[in-house]
Amino acid sequence: MLEREIEKYLCKKIKDLGGLCEKFTSPSRRSVPDRIITLFDGHVLFVELKSTTGTVSKAQNNDHLKRFELGVTVYVLSSKDEVDQFIDYCKRTLLCY
Question: Phi/psi of residue 36, each to 5°?
Fold first, then answer.
């Protein structure tokens, strides 16, 4: 499955939750995560999307590691099933449905 199809699916699922799923670009830095997700109660999450066969580059991995050292997780999703699992995680742990 193509990355853009997974990205579109993620955005729809986040919108259905009432959240924002914004494209993340940085003019001064490459390899930042693809999306910033904002949910209720101030929860902000970073998501890197890959095609079903895609892999995280070394530069992306370094960015994710730096964020992890700062206490932030970057979620890497590469299928609709992984998006569904991520949405379930958000519902269970962040939104308290």
Answer: -110, 125
